[in-house]
Design goal:
The complex is a heterodimer of chains A (about 475) and B (about 500).
Chain A (H helix, E strand, L loop, with lengths): L2 H7 L1 H17 L6 H16 L9 E2 L4 E2 L2 H21 L7 H23 L3 H19 L6 H32 L7 H4 L7 H18 L8 H8 L2 H26 L4 H24 L4 H22 L2 H32 L10 H4 L1 H15 L5 H15 L3 H27 L12 H19 L2 H9 L4
Helix pairs in contact in A: 2-3, 2-5, 3-4, 3-5, 4-5, 4-11, 4-14, 5-6, 5-11, 6-7, 6-11, 7-9, 7-10, 9-11, 10-11, 10-13, 11-13, 11-14, 12-13, 12-18, 13-14, 13-17, 13-18, 14-16, 14-17, 14-19, 14-20, 16-18, 16-19, 17-18, 17-19
Chain B lengths: L3 H17 L9 H22 L8 E9 L4 E7 L3 H18 L7 H20 L3 H22 L4 H29 L7 H5 L5 H18 L8 H8 L2 H26 L1 H27 L4 H22 L2 H32 L10 H4 L1 H15 L5 H16 L1 H25 L16 H19 L2 H17 L6
Helix pairs in contact in B: 1-2, 1-4, 2-3, 2-4, 3-4, 3-10, 3-13, 3-18, 4-5, 5-6, 6-8, 6-9, 8-10, 8-11, 9-12, 10-12, 10-13, 11-12, 11-17, 12-13, 12-16, 12-17, 13-15, 13-16, 13-18, 13-19, 15-17, 16-17, 16-18
The chains are: A mainly alpha (about 475), B mainly alpha (about 500).
Chain lengths: ~475, ~500
Amino acid sequence: MNALESLHSFIPETIVLTGAFLVLALDLFLRHKKILAALSVLILAAAAFFSFSLPANPQVFFGFFHLDAMTVFFRLFSYGVVALTILISTCYRPIENKFEGEYYALFLFLALALVLAAASTNLLMIFLNIEFISILSYLLVGYEKKNERSKEASLKYLLFGSVASAMMLFGMSLVFGATGSLWLEAIPATLAKDSAFFTVALTGTLFLLAGLGFKVSMAPFHLWAPDVYEGAPTPVTTFLTVGPKALGFAVLLRVLVGAFGWFRFEWCHVVALLAIITMTLGNVTAIAQTKVKRLLAYSSIAQAGYILMGVAAGTLAGIESVLYYLVAYALTNIGVFTIAIAVANQSKNDEIESFRGLSRRAPGLAAAMVLFLLSLAGIPPLAGFVAKFSVFAAALQVQLYTLALAAAINSAVAAFYYFKIVRLMYLVPCDNEQAVEKPAVLSFVIVLLLAGTIALGLFPAPLMTLAHNALPL
Amino acid sequence: MSHLLSWLVFTPLVGALAVLFIPKSAAEFTKWVALAATLVTGLLSLFLLTQFDRSLATVQLTEKALWIPQINVHYFLGTDGISMPMVMLTALISILACLASFNIDLRQKEYYCLFLLLETGMMGTFLALDLFLFYVFWEVVLVPMYFLIGIWGGPRKEYAAIKFFLYTLAGSLLMLLGILALYFHTTPHTFNVLELAQAHFTVKFQKFIFMAFFLGFAIKVPVWPFHTWLPDAHVEAPTPISVILAGVLLKMGTYGFFRFAYPIAEDAARWFSPYMAILAVIGIVYGGFVALAQTDFKKMVAYSSVSHMGFVLLGLAALNQNGFNGAMTQMFNHGTITGGLFLLVGVLYDRAHTRDMTAFGGLGARVPLYAGFLVFFSMASLGLPSLSGFVSEFLVLLGGYQFNGTLTAVSCIGIILAAAYLLYMIRRVLLGPLNPKWAALEEINTREIVTLVPLMVLIVLFGLCPRLLLAYMTPTLNGLLHAMGGLAL
């Protein structure tokens, strides 16, 4: 399909792009920036409304983008995550009013970038879109311009990110050299296992894996994550632990399972090993943390390890489990961070200690936090349990027993530090009786996420069907 | 009444939600709502008793509905001679524990909400016949328990709560792997216990499955050497929660063997039974000796639990009719007897604020009624004939002797030890000259007596006429034994 015809199927993206410019322009005239936030959410809602239709021919824009069910899945996912991030950003104090408008516009651009990355089927296009996401992320991480940590985080992210991009590009060039093509669907056809270039392609794949591993904070490419997550404004951290990570997985699925799935046995053990290292490092390091954002940063690294289990399985069930996990993880992780924002607004710091006695000061928040943490720990009947169950199942189905066993032990370790927060909220008597202020928007977001977390745990069937239908066939 | 089992499982949950919506100003009201919920569940369980056909060996009163079609998970409840007595025990212990909670005045709303959630979890665990559903309920028990120990417990409550939680979670995650492996080894994939029991896997695979289940269940029972969480949890937990812990939660482990591990992996069970018997006997003797060395009243009862649960395990390992009957009755009787002992420890602790047995002495003269109760439950626990503890331990020894005479002989040391530590306790607490410090100790009150009397009635009843209890269990146990290739008479 040529560009003009393709635009018909890109109505949501057009809405988002136009909306982003609109918000940028209105920012010049509006003093009350919350209106822009509301507008941005409306734009995303409108885009989501038009997101469901699938074109007869999924190849759009000369085949550079593949508008299949999986793209639609990630499209809705991205718009949802960005909308939630914008909503909780309105309650985050440290962002200066002067720059608030741009901030929302940048998020709208990010929403677009995420969808494009999920839809790309050409290696070069994948690279461009990942850079698109990365550059916007660097900007947003450094958004608290007067905060040294925020600036440091941004710079660190930029440096690490550039190296990762370079690796990924190098890997792509190797793949191109071996196969003579940048099109994902052409790779299996041009590359036979006994081909002289097979090793080159395999090396290229591993480089690609390293570059994408950076995005999903896979060990040993995760070193940037704790510092960046800690330094960035909390809503941006929330987004980074969910949005780019999910899209990293989307691309990983398209590249590894889609294009290189036929020699799965060459890479699945590498991914399995990396998954074990990722979850173990994340969990063990998280235990010692005293700051909420750092603890959650390591927790999100560990969660990436669990999600990698589904990738390592490399089967259709594996992909399904990754998709399910991403949604469950997004709901709970955004929930946890939202509560962290509410608590930090009152305590003015990131220490875990600021959760002390929360069950007295804000019983509703504390109860919600417990449920979110239980879901992250994979306790039934919550969304996180079904998600973990699915990745365990996917790994066991292809006889990755060591991986499954390591993940089981890791889950018990993880429960220990999640319960550190639970303990502070419920078991430890509180020393200040100051109630925690809950803006209406935050309460709304928390209720929404909580409902989702419980619903996905009790009735996982609909989302499973959705994930099943989103499989790239 | 249709959906009787669902009502049994979810009535406490409805109660928990009701408690949640009681306004703060009416906090005193919560305990009555909670008691009502447990009483209604109790009435439902009595109704179950009338509906239950005890001549059947198969599961009955089943309820089945598709839950997650993609992975063939069903909401599947059912009961038989193995789960029905446990359901009755859960209902009874919950009512009594709720009554025993009435003097808790810290954060009542949260307490009763979690308490009722716990009851739902326990009921569900005993009634679920789908492994996925079972796992959900099994874990649902864990979380309220963490809070109940952690918020309302003693001085080291935080340590005890997280230790309990992590220990059990680690075990259950390994069990989860076993459940998944089972699922993938059947065609069509299923979590249905009845279908899995018909599947007849290879011995090698059975061993793998059995070990996964064993770790999950052994931690819960607890089997030596996985018992270290138990004394901590028991000592720190508030009285009613100790009662539930000893009365019901420990049985979830041995119930798991009867319901899942044995029927599904029958060859592995036979392969493992000598080791299981050895672990059981170590637990019986070790628990007894450690109990003898305690000065903390509650810790002594906790270790006596390790010892007494060893008999359940020995009966399971024996793999014969007497062994199974003994194990099943011991599960029930240990619940009533040890539950009662924990209640009595609580009664004393509420008044004296210490559990150090050496600090008492001569209480028999000061609080004769209390002394009478304590002596009664101690006699039941040490296995005095005509009380129920004797019957179950005797059956286990009978079965154990058929299985392995030497091990059974060694396990008898545990019975002697039980007599030793219980009589020693009675001497230190009740006999001798009255410690003047306790000259004003109050006598046991009516509410506390009400919590004890039902247990005593059952102990005497099943001690004199064990047939009443066995009649419900034997058909199912014989069926199980038969299915496992053993002799059922």
